[in-house]
Amino acid sequence: VEVKIEVVIPEKERSKEEMSPNGKASPLIYKVNGTARHYHLEEHPIASNPYHNPKDVVEASVCHVKDLENGQMREVDLGCGKALLIKESGEFHAVGHKCPHYGAPLVKGVLSKGRVRCPWHGACFNIGTGDIEDFPGLDSLPRFQVKIEKEKVYIRASKQALQTQRRTKMMAKCISLSNYNLSSTNVLIIGAGAAGLVCAETLRQEGFSDRIVMCTMDRHLPYDRPKLKKWLFLQSMDSHPEQITLRPREFFRSYDIEVLTEMQVAAVDIKNKTAVFKDGFKMEYNKLLIATGNTPKALSCKGKEVENVFNIRTPEDASRVVKLATSKNVVIVGASFLGMEVAAYLAERAHSVSLVELEEVPFKKFFGERVGRAVMKMFESNRVKFYMQTEVSELREQEGKLKEVVLKSGKVLRADVCVVGVGAVPATGFLKQSGINIDSKGFIVVNKMMQTNIPGVFAAGDAVAFPLALRNNKKVNVPHWQMAHMHGRVAALNMLAHGVEISTVPYLWTAMFGKSIRYAGHGEGFDDVVIQGDLDELKFVAFYTKSDEVVAVASMNYDPIVSKVAEVLAAGRTIRKRDVDTAGFSLFVRTGDMSWLTGKGS
Question: Which residue intervals define the domain Rieske in the entry (predicted)?
Fold first, then answer.
């Protein structure tokens, strides 16, 4: 369904500086060559009239009004699908019951001040509208009508929405791009990861109807990088990279988001507002987003050029690794998130998996020594052999292909394939002479609105250092999937002069051998770890403290406690070390009560 809307901008609004290749015009309706352009708004399902087809509607009584107390949620069945019924401040709301990201049951999440937070990965949704307010994920929840009759609660819903459990927010689209110069665009986005895609989608959601061009070095449309390692296991089936794309090709066509694949930007000329591509092509822009992410570090040892040594960055990398690793000897260099996750995925397929790491314990700097040792023990019980506190000194080959990995300790490991996960550096080398502010580590420095020091130039994702509200606006780099989404959204809103500042709480997860670790906050520089639960049983919560303040939390098998802490921190409240004592945690274990984690106002 398409609703064609002509937007009339009040005279006082027309005077404001807006975005158009021709100077000043509204982002909603503007003129090209003297011709007024309109845009379409599309949403599935249409929120204003979600029940236009009576056969697609179901209505059911789901409970008595007294069955739910304020602050409670319940998953209810409407016969052809389920909904999440919520009661807050005396009012009932009904939305989709599954998180659109990976399908987590939201009834097990955290309800707080008008929104529900996913228990798995921290995405947040407004309970009144269903709109996504924090990430990861791209889609919102469907919202259903609720009515009260004779003390009974009824939900009226679209059958289609009950089945899909997701809703794409309303977006603008251009009717025609025929008037554009191919070598100029209003918005140019360098990088097609989460930050770039969310930026493009947010612009369209806000009614921006001018040209948007994304360019990427990848061969593929934007894809779900956290799923890339999981995709390793799909290789035995008839699988394709399209299985992990964030949006299908038709989506980009529908909303006029142009994606240039296998296109590398070599330089940015900020004076002339031009991006220069490696092949010599030049494109002018009005607004620029740099979201190039990072580049994996390579080994610097002797023999680094031999075949069958990989950084897993693309679906093609994953395909080759799993093909070569099956029933063979694998050496993984680096106990990073990438290295550990790949080790876990390959442990059942490879003949042997060896992991080489310079530190004494995996994840020591991030999760602490005790949690790191517990994770290491889990890996060892799954046939992964660790070689700690050493490095690779040489890669030996036979007929050009990897045969052995030699360690500085003198140990020689048989190896048919090697996966390198020793960290990454920001992919910002092409900006060195641009005038854009880059710090000593290579990160692009931005303010709270994701703006660089150059007007009209924004940056987002793994390549930036930004002020983290949680840590008193200290400039930090947070290379998390969730954070990249929020960066892209904030950048887009400020391209449209909305004056929005970044304030989200970092949230990440990792999955290994069917176990997930959730993490929220920013624990850099923590000086103590308070452990509750049982590390040996891999059922624990770890609170990371600096001085007397909890700055981060990690958990395994104790959902939704990380999401609860994230909500407390997002509200600007402080959790003290004394607040996470054994008595409060025991109450949570017995009853699920998390009231002891309310924190104190800042």
Answer: 60-155
